[in-house]
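Comment thread on ticket #2218

A.B. wrote:
> Attaching the input chain for the structure job we discussed in standup.
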Amino acid sequence: MLFIGVSKAAYYGGLTMGISDEKMVDRYRFPVTHWIMMSLNSDYKTHVDEDVDFTMSFDTYDAKKQANIREIKARLENISTPYEACKMAYHKVARTWDSGGFAYGKYLSRSDPSGGLREVLHSRLLGSYVDGYHSAMLIAMAFGAVYAAGKRRHSALFFSIVTLTGVILFFLIWENPPRYIVTFIPVIMLLCTAGTRFITAIISRLCKRVSASK
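C.D. wrote:
> Ran it. Output below, let me know if you need it in another format.
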């Protein structure tokens, strides 16, 4: 809500102060349909320059929107079979998972490491560690969601989990570059901590029951 409010204030403020005009905004404004269209590209890429050029080839916002809708319908016809739908879902989830692991190998190797460091960055052991750490974070967040949902009074924790769940679902159908999740890391760590406390409490209760039964 805050983001929408700030965006609207910037939009109307810019028009009022003469920084821009409605004709220019209409020319360069991207409708939401553009991002939906681009997420359905046949190459499963997160960004396609040709799609951007296609949308920008129309002069008005409404013309862009209608052109995007026509293209969305055409692309949906190409993935109408269960096989194609599953294939697209696989590629997008795999990309999201890879970026959720902070794409460590690709980004760290850009510094062109030499010697043993290169082997470490591309080793299966490091890959297994990152995947395991990623899995543990998601499991902890899931337990945190259960814990927050079970509360009689919905706290800020519950709404944080709902918000982050929406973000994750959006990434699953669109993209999740590592630079996008950096701002969510503090929230993710807090939710993981809450989930870990819930898991610890469950284990503690189980241990007490086992001890009491002996």
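A.B. wrote:
> Thanks. Noting for the ticket: The chain has a mean pLDDT of 77.
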